Amino acid sequence: MNPEFDLDLLRTFAAVADAGSFTKAAVSVHRSQAAVSMQIKRLEQMLGTTLFTRDTRNLALTRPGNTLLEYARRALDLQEEAWSALVRPEVTGRVVLGAPDDYMAALLSPVLKRFSTLYPHVEIEIVCAQSVALGPMLADNKIDIAFVTRDKKLRGEFVRSEDMVWVGLADDPAPLAMSPLPVGLYEHGSVARAHTVAALDAAHIRYRAAYSSASLMGLMATVEAGIAVVALTRCSVPPRFEILGEAQGLPRIEPLDIVVARSVKSNRPTCDYFVEQMVQDLSVRRPPASGAVIGDRR
Question: What molecular function does GO assign, one term (predicted)?
């Protein structure tokens, strides 16, 4: 007789696959790193195969691991759907969600998919705009929930930090050879722009703000054209771009804190459930202080 899958083991396995790290997965499943490692070992022993390849820097799924991940997600989604159908009342209504386009594409798609599965009768309206534009919309109750970069005026419940990285084209180093350095920046008033400019100034790098855009696509177009380097959130960097850094003479940029903020009119179950799902799926502990070990792959 084949052993039965333990959903708790599958949940931990999926968390490790998503985080790319035992340490980060331990935070999301509220267990110690040692307990997570033992659960993965137990699952591998049960299946008689290796699910992850490991070295000092990387953690990647094996072919059996990729196969199991697909089934694990389906099993976990089905469990959550069944729980919601039996325990929670049928939820109807409408949620207006605002977020920058890079956060929407890179981070919120899985949240929307899961929420729509659990609450199929809730209508979701999406407003893509930069954080500086979403703040006033939130205050005017034009949107219910904003998933945004925190600044002095726009605060909320902390969800995660996102690294900012420099990007360019791997086969076109021309912008890096120019002086002053041509840089594409987000619009004035944005925290991402402020952090980027502060990093350049602190490193005493001569630059010119060659291009400015409120849109991720606008900044990506300057990279594609080979006319500037830009700083993006790591989660939004396309595979075709090269991540640049100290080896190219570019400074480290302070990460962005992402929060979920709510309008006054969002005090209703549909919004409560959506925020709960968002925080559960995306919450990441703040990174350690400078000098601590980051990205432990054990």
Answer: DNA binding
Question: So what's the pLDDT on residue 169?
Answer: 85
Amino acid at 134: L
Q: Are 242 and 170 in contact (CB under 8 A)?
A: yes
From the number of C-beta atoms within 10 Å of its C-beta (0-12, 13-18, 19+), residue 186 rates as: buried
Q: What is the structure's pLDDT at 57?
A: 65
The pLDDT of residue 287? 37
Give domain 97-158+260-282's CATH number out of 2.40.30.10, 3.40.190.10, 3.30.530.20, 3.20.20.80: 3.40.190.10
Question: Residue 123 carries which side chain, given as an amino acid letter?
Answer: E
- C-beta neighbour count of 265 within 10 angstroms: 12
pLDDT at 88: 66
Predicted local distance difference test score (pLDDT) of residue 74: 86
Low-confidence ranges of the chain (pLDDT < 50): 1, 285-298
Dihedral angle of Cα 103, 109, 115, 120, to the nearest 10 degrees: 130
Axis-axis angle for helices 109-118, 269-282 (nearest 10): 130
Query: Exposed, middle or buried by CB within 10 Å (0-12, 13-18, 19+), for 99?
Result: buried
Return the CATH number of the domain spanning residue range 7-87.
1.10.10.10
How confident is the model at residue 3, as a pLDDT? 62
Residue limits of CATH 3.40.190.10 in the chain: 97-158+260-282, 161-256
CATH code for residues 161-256:
3.40.190.10
- The predicted pLDDT at position 296 comes to 31
